[in-house]
């Protein structure tokens, strides 16, 4: 993930200060929940890198593991809702 980076644009009329160099794709054909877990781990890592880049207050987060305390629950809620939406499309039921 560290080699992929992310896109960062400081302002509307400015040049990018960071360019994304790749994408991540996961596909656990037999288990949507496993796919979502892997995607959540990737999202957590990249979000943390973006916050560090922005100089955001991490309020107790440690590099490479936890998100800032103020962001942990909204992050979990968003990915839980994502899991349910994907599962509903593929299986007709919410995620486990």
Largest sheet: none
**Low-confidence regions:** none
Distance between the termini: 27 Å
Contiguous helical run count: 2
Q: For this entry, what is the oligomeric state of its chains? A: single chain
Order of helices and strands: HH
What is the overall shape? Answer: globular
Mean pLDDT: 80
Helical amount among residues, as a percent range?
40-55%
Total beta-strand segments: 0
What does the model show?
This protein is mainly α. The chain is 48% helix and 0% strand. Helix 1 runs antiparallel to helix 2. The chain is globular and about 45 Å long. The model has no long low-confidence stretch (mean pLDDT 80).
List the helices and strands and how they pair.
Blueprint: H1 32-54, H2 69-91
Helix pairs in contact: 1-2
Please describe the structure with a list of short key phrases separated by commas or semicolons.
mainly alpha, globular, 96 residues
Describe this structure in a few short sentences.
With 96 residues, the protein is mainly α.
